[in-house]
Amino acid sequence: MSAGNPENPTVTLELLDSSQGTPLQTWTFHDCAEITIGRSDDNDIHLADPQVSRLHAKLTLEDGQWTLHSLGRNGTRLGGKLIVSEVLDEQARFQLGGSGPTLRFSAKSAAKTYSATIDNIDPSAFDFLVIDERKKSEEIQQIVEGEAFQQLQEQAKRLRENQ
Fold first, then answer.
1. pLDDT tens, 10-62?
2. Beta strands across the sheet bearing 10-16
3. Rg of the chain taking only CA atoms, in angstroms
4. What is the 3-state secondary structure (H, E, C) of the chain?
5. pLDDT, tens digit, for every residue of 91-104?
């Protein structure tokens, strides 16, 4: 993994279960411009699978877009097609070899990601949480006077008596 600059997105790769498509393992990379995938231990993502070459694929950040480069002898499939080099879309899935592991790619730009804290939340955003006590009392009264509630109370009374 080669270092990039802080404007590079966070990249997540997930190894997917071949039968159900659910993630089995996840790798997250921050501020990098290249990610290597292969059977060799010196790759960023090491996969011990006979369909995977020692250096099978490489992801590179070029002009703000991630590109998948196939380097393995068994090929790399994107959308079912063998590729040499392709720009990846968000949530792209690619397979290493004809029947090898499938990975899901996603990238999130740091500029698009933020987290709010209690320090920067406008308190007026919570005005909708104020409880109207008068309305609450009216609604409770409607429920208590309702036929369904009366039936439930009678049923509860009978159950207590039978214990």
1. 999 999 998 888 899 999 999 899 999 999 999 999 999 999 999 999 999 98
2. 23-29, 10-16, 102-108, 93-96, 76-78, 81-83
3. 28
4. CEECCCCCCEEEEEEECCCCCCEEEEEEECCEEEEEEECCCCCCEECCCCCCCCCCEEEEEECCEEEEEECCCCCEEECCEEECEEECCCCCEEEECCCCCEEEEEEECCCCCCCCCHHHCCHHHHHHHCCCHHHHHHHHHHHHHCHHHHHHHHHHHHHHHHC
5. 899 999 989 999 99
- Please give the residue that has the higher pLDDT: either 157 or 112: 157
Angle at the Cα of 26 from the Cα atoms of 21 and 31, rounded to 5 degrees: 130
Give the predicted TM-score (pTM) of the model.
0.63
* Separation between Cα atoms, residue 154 and residue 163, nearest integer Å: 15
